[in-house]
Write a structure and sequence with these properties.
The structure is a homodimer.
Chain A (H helix, E strand, L loop, with lengths): L8 H8 L7 E7 L6 E7 L3 E6 L9 H13 L17 E3 L2 E7 L11 H17 L13 H9 L3 H7 L3 H15 L6 E4 L8 E4 L2 E5 L6 E4 H12 L10 H14 L4 H28 L12 H11 L3 H5 L3
Antiparallel strand pairs in A: 1-2, 2-3, 3-5, 4-5, 6-9, 7-8
């Protein structure tokens, strides 16, 4: 949520000279994205996002993200494209960082989604899953089920219990339970796995853009819906479930793409996994980020509350109302 | 250089409903400005800057800034206007902060100004001084000459000397010297006093915008030129003077507005004052800002080097070449 690497107008102009996209008119560092430096860059012909990749994104993964977005764009999905320079290169070096010029998509990210917006997101996610059916590349999920226990083992017990007494043992038990109960054999596909409201751009109630694919990978498509469900169907503290939003999100998805009976049955388990994944990364960041650092720490307990919700629902509670 | 107060799309939409400027299309927090939170806000009709005033700007000063910019805009200066809502109000409350919707001006800020750009800035500054000749409001300069000694007395001697041995005594001597030698009776006017390259928006070599008037006040007009000179005519470290940029800046100014013989004579003293002003605020921030805080600390010594430069020039060195 900050600009880490400064890019001058002169540097941006020099970069743009490699492209056929017009001359620089405006350049603003924006507070957006995972942990990259992002600039809103305007030329006399169009607007772009200039992204400099900081530590969190492995440059070796960039071709996967590029190819996935190119595939989705060709299929008509509302995703931003990486722009090629005159020599067909989409990957550049800017101030010692890997950098890309990316299509700008207008639209606003909502903070309190309505049912209509959730339905539109469900449809968009399903359309994305349809569009990647013939996307051949695979990439293991670095934050998938097998990563959770090792990540948890790097979290300090005292610090975890300082956040909430008993949290450490509760999460340890959940890691074990999910290891035992994680489903097998569900349909795999390219998934977003981070489709929070701030990664969806709306124009009115229509989805105008799906962005920030830097956690994209191959995993269960129903896990992607479970992440989206956990991200959209609660207040941000996670202590209020919004059943109308849940029903609309699932109905939107199912109106485009049917889930198998196995996927529906496994959904509460997948949603527990989705909650644990964000609980764990937030917990790790909470413990390892100084309170006054540049990055805003997010509350891990907001996903512990979601986890508790999903422990107490069964598939019929979520799919029965659709 | 960061967003301190989060504004959701819902909050921005609610705010826009008070205005006749169209509906929200895009909202991006931008890393810009003194220490306010700034958003680039786009509607279906135009683009704006939404500014939330954080601690550094005193809300009691906002009417002065508003009136000054309105005056300049009417006079044809390229400055952003505060936008009125349907009831004629330009000052709002957003998330507990005073906030204004401000006209967006395109253009880029240069990091390494050319002589042509400096000449254009000199002209723009002089035109601004001409345009405020009939601006009636006065506001003392809170960072003017009389503020420097009290500000310096709040800086720790050991910390200052830790930055550079002998700095504390050198700056103490400069405060005393400027108190004795500060000119009197020079022409006063409304001045910007912070016209660094990042506060000027260029379209090519033309000045398309002068922004960030939150240090504007009443002071010597030649002091405003001295600040601009110190800001534009050196590399950022302050150890390289660019004589061609200096000549162009001063020539640009004088082509629009003549300075008196007293103003020219006093210029090196004013420029020492301008250097001390930024040296002191940077020194104070350096000593009192944790190294890992949200705000980037700027090097005070960059302005100590400028100060040393101005101690060794006389008026003819700067004006003789024009």
């Amino acid at each position: 949520m900050a600009v880490y690497t400064q890019v001058s107008a002169e540097t941006a102009s020099k970069l743009l000279a490699r492209y056929d996209v017009g001359a620089l008119v405006s350049l603003k560092g924006i507070a957006e994205g995972v942990e990259n430096s992002n600039y809103l860059l305007e030329t006399d012909r169009a607007r772009f996002i200039l992204t400099l990749y900081e530590n969190r994104v492995d440059p070796a993964d960039l071709p996967y993200f590029h190819n996935l977005l190119a595939h989705l764009h060709r299929a008509g999905s509302p995703v931003p494209r990486f722009i090629d320079d005159r020599n067909g290169h989409w990957l550049q070096d800017v101030n010692g960082k890997k950098a890309c010029l990316i299509e700008f998509l207008p639209g606003i990210s909502v903070s309190e989604p309505t049912a209509a917006q959730a339905e539109a997101v469900g449809k968009s996610l399903a359309r994305m899953h349809v569009a990647v059916a013939d996307f051949a590349e695979a990439k293991p999920n670095p934050l998938g089920q097998s990563s959770w226990k090792p990540l948890f083992e790097r979290c300090d017990a005292t610090a975890a219990d300082g956040l909430q007494p008993g949290l450490y043992n509760d999460v340890a038990g959940e890691c074990d339970w999910l290891e035992t109960n994680w489903p097998e054999g569900l349909p795999l596909t390219a998934v977003h796995t981070d489709l929070f409201p701030d990664n969806v751009l709306f124009r009115g109630d229509d989805v105008g853009g799906l962005i920030d694919f830097y956690f994209a990978c191959t995993d269960f498509r129903a896990f992607d819906l479970a992440v989206t469900h956990a991200a959209w169907c609660f207040n941000s503290d996670g202590d209020e479930f919004h059943p109308d939003v849940s029903t609309a999100l699932i109905a939107g998805y199912l109106s485009v793409l049917k889930l198998t009976a196995e996927e529906k049955r496994a959904f509460p388990v997948l949603a527990r996994g989705a909650s644990l994944r964000f609980l764990l990364t937030r917990l790790y960041d909470w413990i390892n980020t100084p309170a006054d650092a540049l990055v805003t720490r997010k509350d891990p307990l907001a996903f512990h509350r979601r986890l508790q919700f999903y422990r107490n629902v069964d598939s019929a509670d979520l799919f029965g109302t659709v």
